[in-house]
Amino acid sequence: MATGNAIRGTRVGSGPVRWAERGEQAPRRSVAYWCANGHLTQPAFAAEIEPPDTWDCPRCGLPAGQNEQAPPERPRAEPYKTHLAYVKERRTDADGEAILQEALARLRQRTGR
Ligand SMILES: [Zn+2]
């Protein structure tokens, strides 16, 4: 019953390996995406997959869209805001001025002696 074994050995059904093998012949289409920096990336999708509206630019990480004339907006940097940015945001300009004047006054006092 060597034939039966061979059939079972081909792993009828789906699996990652099987899918990759099929990918060689499966119809594919590459979709062009442009990011706000004008980078073009053309990932290929299997024809039966609906390409996403946006794709992360592999060069700068910005979201890229399929419309070259209207790439997606740069995302607001909020998730990546540094501690310094938070501090700056909390303090108003007036506060910053007051802190600066205070520091200058202290500096003058010290050097004046
Ligand atoms: Zn880019």
Helix content: 25-40%
Mean pLDDT: 79
| Cα distance spanning the termini | 104 Å
Number of strands: 6
Q: What share of residues are in beta strands?
A: 15-25%
Bound molecule kinds, no repeats: zinc ion
Q: What is the spatial order of strands in the main beta sheet?
A: 3-2-6-5
Q: What structural class do the secondary elements suggest?
A: alpha+beta
**What is the string of helix and strand elements?**
HHEEEEEEHH
Helix and strand layout, with pairings?
Blueprint lengths: L1 H8 L6 H8 L4 E3 L2 E3 L4 E2 L2 E3 L7 E3 L6 E3 L17 H8 L2 H20 L1
Antiparallel strand pairs: 1-4, 2-3, 2-6, 5-6
The protein binds zinc ion (ZN).
Zinc ion binds next to loops.
Give a brief outline of the structure:
This protein has 113 residues and is of the alpha+beta class.
Question: What does this protein structure show overall?
Answer:
- The protein has 113 residues and is an alpha+beta fold.
- 39% of the residues lie in helices and 15% in strands.
- The strands form 2 sheets. It has a 4-stranded antiparallel beta sheet with strand order 3-2-6-5, with no helix packed on it.
- The longest helix has 20 residues, at 93-112.
- The radius of gyration is 29 Å and the shape is rod-shaped.
- The N and C termini lie far apart (104 Å).
- 7% of the residues are buried.
- The mean pLDDT is 79.
- Bound molecules: zinc ion.
- Zinc ion is lined by residues 35, 37, 39, 57, 59-60, 62.
